[in-house]
Amino acid sequence: MAELIFFSGTMDCGKSTLALQMDHNHRARGRGGVRFSCNDRAGGSVISSRLGLQTDAVEVLDTTDFWDEVVRRRTTGLRVDYLICDEAQFYSPGQVEQLARVVDEMDVDVFAFGITSDFRTRLFPGSQRFVELADRIQVLQVEALCWCGRRATHNARTMDGIMVVEGEQVVVGDVAMDGPAGDGSGDAVNEPADALSPAVGYETLCRRHYMRRVTAHGANLMASRDQLLPFDVDACLWHGAN
């Protein structure tokens, strides 16, 4: 029986890589599928991985209807056994319901990949609906790491290196010092940054440092002061911490 499966994790845990691998495996067994994405780091109509893998995809817009997408292809003779849905956190709750209907009434497997919560630790509306409706939720086993080396559990947004917890859910930013621009999920899109605006960035943090608002930038500032203390202050005295 077909299933609606939601693969979730933080930035840098390999969601897009797994999406491309699953698509390859199913196609190698003769199954027909359609790849979907939304606001990918490499631009529109593509699924890309930070490992360098990339393939074409159908861009999901506000007007996209997944039921119609499958019906249109099947009525023209194309085989649709499964859907790969990357950057699924950006889908609307209504589109997630369409995917559930595709699974139940057309027997099409749906493999969705996305971030569960944003930089404020609030659920993306699309991810929330996936959690409510999915047959299975799988947390990816490849662990992203915090700057301290612990397992990263939260996505953080920074402005000029200082963590922020207020603002729009999706904002263009950087995911690495030498990386391209990115969106609120932490995945990059090719848009130039405004030189007069604060540098917006994204990084993954463990809960301990997310709660204390200690980013890699803040930790580096503390380390550069060469403070020798008989205990671990964990950079919590830095002015950018909460």
Q: How would you characterize this protein structure?
A:
By secondary structure, the chain is α/β, with parallel strands linked by helices. It contains six helices and 13 strands. The chain has helices at residues 15-28, 66-75, 93-106, 125-133, 207-212, 216-224; strands at residues 4-8, 33-37, 46-48, 54-56, 58-59, 82-85, 109-114, 136-139, 154-159, 162-164, 173-174, 181-182, 200-205. The strands form four sheets. The chain has a six-stranded parallel β-sheet with strand order 5-2-6-7-1-8, with helices on both faces. Strand 6 (82-85), helix 3 and strand 7 (109-114) form a beta-alpha-beta unit. Helix 3 packs parallel to helix 4 (125-133). The longest helix has 14 residues, at 15-28. It is elongated and about 65 Å long. The termini are far apart. The model is unreliable at 177-193 (pLDDT under 50).
List keywords for this structure.
242 residues; alpha/beta; three-stranded antiparallel sheet; 6 helices; elongated
